[in-house]
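User: My instructor asked us to take a sequence, write out its structure as tokens, and then describe one feature of it. I'm not sure where to start. Here is the sequence I was given:
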Amino acid sequence: MFSTLIMFACAYLLGSLLPGFWIGLIFYHKDIRDEGSGNIGTTNSFRVLGPVAGTATLVLDLLKGTAAGLLPIVFHSTINPMLVGIAAILGHTFSIWLKFKGGKAVATSAGVLLAYNPQFFFMVATVFIVMLLLTSMVSVSSMVGFSFALVTSFFYHDWILTVVAAILTGFVFYRHRSNIQRIINGTESTVPFGWYHHYQQTHHK
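Assistant: Let's start with the prediction itself. The structure tokens for your sequence are:
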């Protein structure tokens, strides 16, 4: 029991590490909470700090989720990696280093999924990338990607995967509620590539 608590605590602490926030402070002398969308995740890191910092943030957020999902192997535990991964996701969203505030945990959730089922992860990642290339919006791609994960999980006959996917999908939609309003209003930020970005550029000249 004690080792299980330690494992979940380690997962939470892994998740609470905030590479986007720290990269901004250490290397760029910027607090990304004060610029762009104010979020400490990948999208705002790209927007405020540039592609190098944004890519580093994406990779590190993904890897900390994967590391948390692999903790049952380290602790020789039979606990489902998805359940341990929830602690990392909560750590990212409610980080102890930012007075229990944080990001939207999309990359961290994807990292947990990678540890649990790499094939499933790459399917969801493919949907995310396709949607990003079409819509040029990370928010839309994230919500569609997680919705796809939820629907597809039923075909795996894995109730833990389905339950966790349902929780994460609801969580992602909740964390993106302001984005949903901006999408409806036509004011959502876009990335500088993809079909919709090209459409905006060609029709606003």
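For the description part of your assignment, you could build on this observation: The radius of gyration is 17 Å. Try explaining in your own words what that tells you about the chain.
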